[in-house]
Amino acid sequence: MSNTPIQALHNYHQTAKSLNLAKRIELKELLGITEDDEKRLVGLDNEDEFIVILYALEWVKSFSGIEEGIAQVTKTKTTDFFVETVQGRKLSIEVKSSKDHEISFTRNLVEEKEEFSRQHSHECFFAIKLAGLWMLFSSEYILKRGCKISLENDYFKSEMNEIFGERLFLFQKGLEIVTTYSKSKEGICGIKNEYGNAVRIAVKVNGNRKFLISSNNSSYVFLSIVLETIENVMSNQEQIVTRKDNDETIVIERLKENLFVQFSNILTAPILHTMNTELEENYSFPTYIEEMKKNARVSSSSTYICRVACTAASGFSGIS
Predict the structure, then answer these.
(1) In this predicted structure, what is the pLDDT of residue 308?
(2) Phi/psi at 235 (nearest 5 deg)?
(3) Which residues, including other chains, have CB under 8 Å from residue 5's CB and lie 6 or more apart?
(4) What percent of the chain has pLDDT over 90?
(5) Which of 23, 65, 214, 289 would give a disulfide with 19, using CB separation of 3.0 to 4.6 Å?
(6) H or E element: which one contains 97?
(7) Gap between the Cα atoms of 48 and 102, Å rounded
């Protein structure tokens, strides 16, 4: 168990995002950041990700941070932050995550978060990220579930839709994305992998082409960023890689089963795209939050992304 003060972790978390790898390692050594601390830092990153998701969904009126370092003086068990929704509900949010498909808490922890929320006249909710998917549950629900939450049993009982405007896009089986990569040609929006730069992306449904994305066809270039979110899952269902010649490789990915994608994943696709490419070094959700702080209302492009997503959905999916 790490004994590193929470303030030291916050200082590292805030500073490291603007440093290259060598400088981050140097700073870690200076502050005495351990492997256990790294696990705690994942929690801070997830808090930032959830804040960006809520911001992108545009159902939040205001955020209020909670200073955990000061709270430790009186051993107060705080939540992570306060949120006021556009409907006027005041929520106290605790963020938890796991790479697994289930997570459990002690009853004592849940009740402590409830008590803190009650003292500040807020409803107590847990934002839970399991295997990359976000859910939202009241503390009452978690207690009724024996303090154990799983994707299998609880995903469709999440209150993300009702409270924060989350939605699900249904992409139907038969969807096919054919991407041509080149080692010598300039790519589309910085999309690249071990096969080279993505120079041509064809979107098909049951063999019929719906969209063609290339540097010569700019109408759907932005859609290529959104499609990355879907492709990551599609590749696990079926992926065929064919070497065309010494320069080009064709990758075919198909949906063999229907796929649900969270609206928030589509809205945050440009941020994830920037994080996963070399367009901007060290870009992250905390970086985007810093941009939000500098501007009264940073354009999240959510309206435009929503329009692109709905255009895509109308072409090859249904929406729930």
Answers:
(1) 40
(2) -60, -25
(3) 69
(4) 38
(5) 23
(6) strand 90-98
(7) 21
Q: What is the DSSP letter of 78?
A: -
* Residue 176, CA distances (Å) to 210, 253, 267 in order: 10, 6, 22
d(CA 257, CA 173): 5
End-to-end CA distance of the chain: 43
Using alpha carbons only, what angle is made at residue 290 by residues 277 and 273, rounded to the nearest 5 degrees?
A: 20
Q: Which two three-digit tokens encode residue 221? A: 């270039």
Among 291, 295, 286, 288, residue whose Cα is nearest residue 15:
286
Beta bridge pairs of residue 220:
none
Q: What pTM value is reported for the model?
A: 0.74
CB 268 within 8 A of CB 51: no
Smallest Cα–Cα separation from 166: which of 294, 58, 315? 58
Helix axes 285-294, 35-57, angle to 10 degrees: 50
Alpha helices by DSSP H, the chain: 6-16, 21-31, 35-57, 68-71, 107-119, 139-144, 151-154, 160-164, 221-237, 263-267, 269-275, 285-294, 302-316
316: left (phi over 0), alpha (psi -120 to 50) or beta: alpha
pLDDT at 26: 80
Classify the phi-psi angles of 272: left when phi > 0, otherwise alpha if psi is within -120 to 50, otherwise beta: alpha
Write the pLDDT tens digit of every residue in 101-144.
Answer: 999 999 999 999 999 999 999 999 999 999 888 999 999 999 99
pLDDT(312) > 50: no
